[in-house]
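Human: I'm a chemist; would you kindly supply sequence and structure tokens for a protein?

Assistant:
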Amino acid sequence: MSSTQKPPVWRALIPFAPVFLLGVISAACGGGGGGTVAAVAEPPAISLSATSLNFDSEPVGTSSSTQAVTLRNTGNSTLSITDLALSGTNAAAFSQANTCGISVAPGGNCTISISFAPSTTGVQTASVIITDNAAGSPHTVALKGTGTAPTANLSATTLSFGNQSLRTTSPAQTMTVTNTGDGALNITALALHGANAGDFAETNTCGSSVAAGASCAVSITFTPSASGNRVASLTIDDNAAGSPQTVNLTGAGTVPSVSLSATSLSFPIQTVGTASAAQVITLANTGGGALSITSLSIAGANSTDFAQTNTCGGSLAPQANCTISITYKPTAARSSTASVSVIDNAPTSPQTISLSGNSTANQVINVSPGNNLQSLVNQNPAGTTFSLGAGTYRLQSAVPKDYDTFVGDAGAVLNGASLLTVFNQSGSYWIVQVQVTQLTSYNGVCDSTHPACTFPEDLFFDGNPKVRVASLASVGPGTWYLDYTAGLAYLGDDPTGHTVEISTVSHAFSGSATSVVIQGLTVEKYACQAQEGAIHAVNGTSWTVDTSEVRNNHGTGIRVGNGMTITNCNVHNNGQLGIGGGGSNICIQSCEISNNNTAGYAFGWEAGGVKLAQAYYALIQYCNSHDNKGPGFMTDCGSQYITYDSNTASNNQEAGIYHEISYDVVIKNNTITNEGVNPQGTGPWYGAGIDVYDSANVQVYGNKVINCANGIVGRQDDRGTGSNGQPYQLMNLSVHDNTITQSSGYAEGIVANSAYTSLVYSSWNNHFQNDTFNLTNSATYNYFFWLNQPWTLAQWETYSNLH
């Protein structure tokens, strides 16, 4: 270096910050060479493409798509990364992968990829923490996501289809699947499984996904391929908790079962060319499936001698019944045979009823009032026709032979009373000698105004009965008293100028003969006890009473037995009942029954128009029962398979039609007016137009009930068990398609002893549906009784719509 040269200015190139000096200063020593200073390096710097990431809602158990954050080293030095990790409350719900390694060169970059996979629902947060040698370390990326999950809520987990006829399809039952969660419900499979899955079918609106808050419907039907209980299940595989969801399915395949009230009919001897009274067979479907009837016909050697009509139609519902009415009209004198054949879908098809009858060219014995009817019966063979001419046959009592027929001309009257003609007056009494025998016991319970009702002898002035009193001291106008010991009758009225009679003979017809016919006769004033009849067929079989008038007898006008047919009769003013009794295969058609219970029996015991007890397969049809002091029509004491069809009833006491502690009755197409009046009370316990009391399997439809004390009422009390072992319960009552007109009282409903409330209203299958009401004050008056309390029409219609 020359002395004139200036040395280099070194200091000007070096910042005055020695703590940041990274280079090395070097100088030439000797040789006069010049020196250099290294550049000072800047530190690394981080730039993040995002400092927070928000993830969309993500179903629990799934993973989102990734979101990326780019990390750049914007400095001039290498970025050293000592840690890159997830941290925070829900760090486990996130995952990250990166390309950063342990360093990033100046100007370089790397990628951090993050995904969200929640294991629980709700908002979840975490952070990516980057620890490095750049200013501001550690650097943070905030993370946020929401976990969602669907919830499958089923409207039912069990569907029961009950009984269904084989190979027929039930109405659909619908089950709703509702997603009550906050995530989509993804359905991967919806299928039927189980032992009888093929008996069920489903359709649905669910598709593969149900949005949060949305619903879909699954409709299922049942078509049993075999009888008995059938089970399956519907399973729904989805992404909700508890998957698969399961709905249990049950049903029972049923078949019809046919019961006939008789499998053979034998007709009495019939004159050639004349038609017999109809004999009625009741056909009942006692199974659980509908009975399909494809044909019902008569065939056999003498099929043309028989004819049938029926109410069966093409189908018979479970527990329903129909009637087959058969007549015999022989075309020649012979023994006729044929059979009724019913072809149906029951396992026992065809059902067969054997028919037989005997005919005669005409064996007729003419009878006059002076003849002794029993003597004529004894002198002639079975099957004789006795033709009674006009006149009064007094004190006659006949025990017929098999197939005997008694036919009366107009004005032929059988009278069981003796004429009284010789009277002595003693003070306010008129006294007459009578020949009667006192019995050791008498049937019945009297009302409070007729204390002597049980004694069977009645006294008549000009055909009208006087009231019998229990003591001589009670005799006054309109009454009389009988002293059995002295054989004297005491009258409270002057008999002068009157025809006075006292009934003394118990029965006009009785005995155990079969197929007796009584036609065109008036039967009156017989001294039969209560529960016995002037025509007393209780021990006979297949008797027919046709076009006869039965009146003014003390107990029951006509006492029925097995196979009894009563048609076109006028039964009135009898002391206890018009028609009573029991047995099987009974037919009462086109009769007028009126003004019975003149003796004053307590109708709560047994009195009124018609009462059958322990009756099976009975048809009561086209009859008019009115103004009886007791129910118009009644069945009691375990009666079963009874049909009341197209009758009228009016102005009777307690009920128009009353079915008590019995089973299986059809009450249809009847007109009931001003019924159910009971002096003991007015509520639903006391009476109704149609009253069903502790009885099971009752159908009530097509009836008109007009201004009764109560309309149609079911009652349940504790009445024990029938002789067949079945309890007396108000179960399977179906009331539908009736028209009820009421100004007061209850139109319909059920009343129950409190011990049965939870059963009779909810568990015993009792229903009211599709009835029409004409109510005077429907807006505010409680015309209905349910859950042991009065209901308004609006409440009742809500119930009916649901049932």
Q: What stands out?
A: The longest strand covers residues 608-621. Residues 1-39 have pLDDT under 50 and may be disordered.
